[in-house]
Amino acid sequence: MQEYKSELMRLLEERGHIHQATDAEGLDKLACEKIITAYVGFDPTASSLHVGNLASIMLLKRVQQAGHRPIVIMGGGTAKVGDPSGRDETRQMLTEQTLSENIASIRTSFEQILRFDDSETGALLIDNDKWLSELGYIELLRDVGPHFTINRMLAFDSVKTRLEREQPLTFLEFNYMIMQAYDFVKLARDHDCRLQLGGSDQWGNIVNGIELARRLDGRELFGVTAPLLTRADGQKMGKSVSGAVWLNEDRLPAYDFWQYWRNTDDRDVGRFLRLFTDVSLEEIRRLEALEGSEINEAKVVLANEVTTLVRGKAAADAAERTATETFAAGGSGADLPTLHISREGARVNAVLTELGFSASNGEAKRKISEGAVKLDGEVVSEAGQLIELSPGEQIKLSLGKKKHAVLRGV
């Protein structure tokens, strides 16, 4: 682990947030000398962000915790173009009204996690449509275009992947990297923003912005990316059997959100406690060292801490209380956990694991072979049985006499 002098870089490093940095030593030195303004961009393509976005939000939280200023950039302008990174197809075009409504809805999550005030370290939320929509096409081509070569743009993974797979990449999407680079220049000019943070897939876009600022203004900017987050089972963060794990309450009930974290793989507990909570490193070392059934203590701490961060303490307390009543006391009725099943359906063994009724798919198969699993009272004989439900349809899943859940189609 690298030794940093600034609280910002030490905090990012010890919590596991750093994957790459353009000039770690220079940034460390600057963070010791002054308050740094840093930003992360988010696409308002849905009415809520999901758990996969939480790692990026935590980067901004760490910035503020270390005494610096975070800026949330809502990509109301870039969303009209669409980031081709990590995508195999063109994004659906959204209307101005939809984008505006999504931004208003997403803002509530940031207000729960970050501190917005008029102080030097108070967070800002800015829509990049404010300046991108005002740019003239000829003006952008003349001022910014000369600093981007087609050769280099074609070398970016997001572009190469589409072309290699012979999948369409529109000229509109091709311009995304130029627009994001301009965002960094604009924020540096207007807010003295010196640092862009993001996921590892944003490295190329961040470097573009740094180089553009150097060429246009002779300004030195910095970039830091976080590791690509996957779970120990190889799945992408933010996905569950029932679909995306949304941050907003109106998209996913607090109990289901809490249960997602309670069902964390044993191997991920320590890492997630570092990334997504403020639990002390000493306490995390104690919790991740627990073995056997005792590791469940750490999972409950993780679930409570993250749910409190995203939904508030009352939501976390209610979720834990429901879990205790349901799983320990054999609760029923309204207390039963609910798992939403998408149109694609879900396998019984995967559902058991997602609910926390089994520690792994292997254990779920064993319980099914023992005849301990029932759907609406009928014994399940095949672990790979596909559960398919129409929207609004629901059935009861039972493991033995004490563990029950409601499966509902969406």
Automatic annotation (TrEMBL):
Subunit structure as annotated in this protein's UniProt entry: Homodimer.
One annotated GO molecular function: ATP binding
GO cellular component: cytosol
Compartment list: Cytoplasm
HAMAP family: Tyr_tRNA_synth_type1 (MF_02006)
Protein name according to UniProt: Tyrosine--tRNA ligase
PANTHER family xref list: TYROSINE--TRNA LIGASE, MITOCHONDRIAL, TYROSYL-TRNA SYNTHETASE
Pfam families (UniProt xref): S4 (PF01479), tRNA-synt_1b (PF00579)
Signal peptide: none
